[in-house]
Amino acid sequence: MTRTPIDEPAERQLLRDAGLRVTGVRLAVLRALGEHQHSTADTVVRAVRDELGTVSVQAVYDSLHALTDADLLRRMEPAGHPARYERRVGDNHHHIVCRACGAVADVDCTVGHAPCLLPSDDHGFTVDLAEVTFWGLCPRCRG
Amino acid sequence: MTRTPIDEPAERQLLRDAGLRVTGVRLAVLRALGEHQHSTADTVVRAVRDELGTVSVQAVYDSLHALTDADLLRRMEPAGHPARYERRVGDNHHHIVCRACGAVADVDCTVGHAPCLLPSDDHGFTVDLAEVTFWGLCPRCRG
DNA sequence: CGTCAAGACTGGAATGATTCCAGAGAACGA
DNA sequence: TCGTTCTCTGGAATCATTCCAGTCTTGACG
Questions:
Q1: Domain range for residue B27?
Q2: Where residue A15 sits, what CATH number does that domain have?
Q3: Are residues B120 and B69 in the same domain?
Q4: Rounded to whole angstroms, what are the CA distances from B21 to B11, B17, B24, B28, B63?
Q5: Nearest to A85 by CA among A127, A35, A138
Q6: What is the pLDDT of residues A28-81, one digit of tens each?
Q7: Same domain, yes or no, for B59 and B98?
Q8: Binding region of B for Zn(2+)
């Protein structure tokens, strides 16, 4: 069930523009997350191996970090769950997490732009981001 | 530097009212978190041992879970950091986390009551809580 | 005030996600 | 094409947390 690696000019360009080297693992990671938003590192590893064959876990973690640092990916980490990655970046949208199955869905920013909220008392902190996580049950688990 | 265990009628009552047995570890955990809000399990273990002598890590985790389940404690877990516990419960306040040192401070609910925000599109989820985490730099680390 | 069953605690091993490390391999500017 | 720099490999290590089986406590009841 190995897919043929497809040349993705758009994604190659994305990497180059970010000043990153173009490698098979990075392209495969981008593609995997394009197909399944909010995947865990583990899921990405499986998808990348499905496409490229043998790839070390570390290579995938390295790519996830490089891409996240370059703002090509966003990392989110719901309490009690492994980190998840997504390609929707630059808009500080938020997330709903299912308490039962851990499913994650996107939610547009509730109020204005990022940081879309300001703390009532910032205790002297310099705030640069407001992260909102909604918790509940997804349609499936509610049944 | 072992402190003498002090009888804390208020905290004994708290446990009893919650239907929990009163044990030394639980009282010590409550006291530790009364003195240092937003402590990690590890910090609580040290504080409890400082008060009671030998106590297993597991006993502290068990207590933290029991107290959290009974709503005597609240657990929060900033991405990339171990979980932290606090005694301020029942008001769904929020938190500011320092990106540099991990320090946490409380922030009152920005808008109305808990859940203080409603998602613009809930994707069919039943939302029961909105958790807001502000990220930035604390006064100390900004310097 | 003693009994005893449910619940809590001990200590050691296991788990899961992630990171560290040293060496081999690949990307790309010159 | 070459060499430098960055990336990938594979295996071990780390950290927070949980699992497990056996022992000890708490507190309801007699």
A1: 9-76
A2: 1.10.10.10
A3: no
A4: 11, 10, 10, 13, 11
A5: A35
A6: 999 999 999 999 999 999 999 999 999 999 999 999 999 999 999 999 999 999
A7: no
A8: 98, 101, 138, 141
What is the DSSP annotation of B108-137?
Answer: --SSSSSS----S--TT-EEEEEEEEEEEE
Q: What's the number of domains chain B is made of?
A: 2
List chain B residues with CB under 8 Å of A100: none
Tell me: is residue A138 an annotated ligand-binding position: yes
Nucleotides of C under 7 A from a protein CB: 7-12, 16-21, 26-28
Q: Which two tokens stand for residue A93?
A: 């949208």
pLDDT tens across A68-116, in order?
A: 999 999 999 999 999 999 999 998 899 999 999 999 999 987 654 444 5
pLDDT < 70 regions, chain B? 1-8, 110-121
Query: Tell me, what DSSP letter sits at residue B5?
Result: P
Pairing, β B39-40 against β A104-107: unpaired
